[in-house]
Amino acid sequence: MTKEISIKISGSQALGGDVATVETEACGEYYKKNGKHYIVFDQAAEGASGTVKNLIRLEEERMEITKRGAVAVRMVFEREKCFQSIYQTPYGGFPIEIETKEFAVRETETRIGVMADYVLRADRKHLADCRIRLEVRAEEG
């Protein structure tokens, strides 16, 4: 994998019969240290001014996404585990809980693919059944 990468993140949230999808693409940097993958990229903050700095730390059984800036949160995805955090927005923060149901990583020399299915809760109430897909590709010289 090269240092310069492109990253594509697709997400869906199903609540009742409605499904909302979001997709974003960005260029970033990749490095590997102590057997862990690190992906760093910036993105514009939706509905707010400024940017969000993203750090994704990826292991075989776990993914951690940390966002800082106009929006701030630390989300951890690990199969059959729950993780609590505070999702900070320009309008205030609120507690969230992520319960990961499925998690998979596929890796080649030039690509990394990640999929996580999870339940999103706020104030201990079910919000949505969600899926996040991450695709990291080496940039060609």
Describe the model:
By secondary structure, this protein is mostly beta strands. Helices cover 0% and strands 77% of the residues. It is built from no helices and 10 strands. A 10-stranded antiparallel sheet has the order 6-5-4-3-2-1-10-9-8-7, with no helix packed on it. Strand 5 (62-69) and strand 6 (73-78) form a beta hairpin. It is globular.
Task: Please outline the helices and strands.
Elements: E1 4-15, E2 18-33, E3 36-44, E4 51-58, E5 62-69, E6 73-78, E7 82-89, E8 92-107, E9 111-122, E10 125-138
Antiparallel strand pairs: 1-2, 1-10, 2-3, 3-4, 4-5, 5-6, 7-8, 8-9, 9-10
Short description:
The protein is mainly β and 141 residues long. The chain has strands at 4-15, 18-33, 36-44, 51-58, 62-69, 73-78, 82-89, 92-107, 111-122, 125-138.
N-to-C SSE string, H for helix and E for strand = EEEEEEEEEE
What can be said about the biggest beta sheet?
10 strands, antiparallel
Counting H and I runs of at least 4 residues, what is the number of helices?
0
Radius of gyration (Å): 15 Å
- The first-level CATH class is given as Mainly Beta
In CATH terms, what is the fold-level topology? Lipocalin
